Amino acid sequence: MDRQNLQALDQQSTIRSTPITFLSASATKKPKLSKAERFQKRFPLVFIGIPTGPTKLYSTYYMVAALANLDYPNLEIHWAVTGGNDDPMFAKFRDRLNKLMSAVEWGCNVSWTIHYVPLDRETRFKNFAPILNNKTKLRDEFLDSSCEYFLLLGGDNPAPRKAIRRLMKLDADVSMAVCYQRPGVDAKCGVYPLVWRFLWLPCDLDKYLDVVEPENIEEMRMAWLHCPAMLNVSFDSEWNKKKEVWKVTGGDGCALIKRKVLEMVDWGVTPDQAYHSEDVHFMATAIWYGFTTACAIDLHCGHMDQNGGVY
Question: What is the pLDDT of residues 20-66, one digit of tens each?
């Protein structure tokens, strides 16, 4: 027998000796999910964190009403309230919040908790101190939970009904609605959107690695983090005709944040070092770490004032 025939015979023998495994019908089927598992897969549990305090008493009713109106059936609501038992304003706020939350007939799977965050006298009047303490408390509670999404709401930002579904659809690592601000409480001029686009990003420096010393590149990255170059989206006359804008920062009165972001980024800006507000700094830090940020331009979140108005 010639060499070519021997090789063909050897190949046939190898093929015939290969064992064949037949899978039963039951082995190919995926395990059937329970009703609760199917619900959890379709509607992941969302942690809602609301930093607030007695100064936001005027907005409490509207905040609770907005929560009850949310078009999402699986929620874990956490309030972080600044104050102490010796403060009469705190006691009034606590009683009203408890009464309102208990009165709601929740039509979905909801649990809620009120956390009290003390504020010592030394830091009470420093910039961002109360809100930083409250957000830090909420972040800690979130990381101790099993939730994958953190919906951050300002204490005077009643959430739009479709907020969670719309921001989940946007699917950025940090997704936010458009919140608004005006120059002063008594200002009669118009409001402006709390959304800014970055003029350049740290990753843009990579193109200069061949011509700039690495230590200088790193210095510029750090400089960007503490003082990024930004432009308000309203400088684009067509901004409100868009559905979404990416690579942004801004007010987090209604922002959906993924767990992987909060595992790396916190509201760690100190009151003495902050160049921007804590929310702008948080999103800039997220981008600095390589996460994505985006704003759903078609999702508007109201901002309440002390007179009961919404803008």
Answer: 454 555 555 667 877 677 777 888 999 999 999 998 999 999 999 99
Q: Which residues, in sequence order, are CB contacts of 42 under 8 Å at separation 6+?
A: none
Tell me how many domains the chain contains: 1
Nearby residues of 53 by Cβ (< 8 Å), 6 or more positions away: 81, 82, 83, 90, 93, 130, 134, 155
Q: How far apart are CA 6 and CA 185, in angstroms?
A: 93
The SS3 call for residue 124 is: coil
- Is 158 within a domain? yes
Q: Phi, psi at residue 225, to the nearest 5°?
A: -60, -40
Residues spanned by the domain of 58: 38-182+190-300
What CATH number is attached to the domain comprising 273? 3.90.550.10
Q: Is residue 213 in some structural domain?
A: yes
Antiparallel, parallel or unpaired: β 230-232 and 192-193: unpaired
